[in-house]
């Protein structure tokens, strides 16, 4: 799948920034690929790009209209269809990370055929995967795990990959969600894989490599989330990580979208080790990544110091303070590059 650039990002009328995390993630890591954003009335998210109409985006040279919003169940709201059709009629391809296939909507399929445009369903892979085998394979791996969904696992993995490469390690980011695929150009949206093949798909995403190569694997969901724990467990078993980073958002009291209480960081560490030992008996936690967006600088630094001391692990905000301390931990545990 080759998605033509530059992008025009569609945010719809989402209620908050988390619901536009696909668009925001693309801008944060691939801003040079983007021309602007399209927002409907009532949209409460903002990527910081220039607001454009679809016609203005097409005139500016946009090649692909990216549906940069997400929702529970990955549905395409009916009132968004008109905008997708307008983009196709304006000469753009359309790419989506939603569960629903674009061509399953008759008006969109007809518009794509009428204009000779491509429809890219990033969440749906054309690959066929085997079941996971759990066989030990060469290379080293780090997986981002979370106390909840939408706490920064993708950003943590991307930041860790960059920090590892900057330090001289051979490192690769492995995408397991639709936004990661948009950013990296390769990967599989694991939550769209048939359950029996999730661990096998995770093995495909992070295959055997040179013994000194590191694969930094984007996490999904949480082992404690009633909705998504199945995907999380399959990813843990298939990715077979040597190390993992716990990702956390400190202001939450409930897990996103459900009434379940948020687990503690220690509970996540213990459960990840207990479950991860099935395919890697030597699995260990190498750090804690905290999304401190809701805290001022003094509060953030104090919280990170407290968490790090409590767990005996480096704790950082990957975006705000970088990943050097966790790379130091990896170097101490597994050796310098």
From TrEMBL:
Top-level taxon in the UniProt lineage: Bacteria
Domain named D-glutamate N-acetyltransferase-like C-terminal: residues: 129-327
Matches recorded under InterPro entries: DgcN-like, DgcN-like_C, DgcN-like_N, P-loop_NTPase
Positions of the D-glutamate N-acetyltransferase-like N-terminal domain: 42-124
UniProt-listed SUPFAM superfamilies: P-loop containing nucleoside triphosphate hydrolases (SSF52540)
Protein's recorded name: EBNA-1 nuclear protein
Organism: Roseibium aggregatum
